Amino acid sequence: xxxxxxxxxxxxxxxxxxxxxxxxxxxxxxxxxxxxxxxxxxxxxxxxxxxxxx
Length: 54
What we know:
Blueprint: H1 17-29, H2 34-52
Helix pairs in contact: 1-2
């Protein structure tokens, strides 16, 4: 992670209650906050997308 990546941007995200519950349970299983879980999942998706374009 570069020095610029340490800065955080805020994002308002509206999701369904059922998705929130699923993410909360998954985050708890992975010992992360919901915010941390969402950031982890998005980071993984971007990494995989970049990997697929090589």
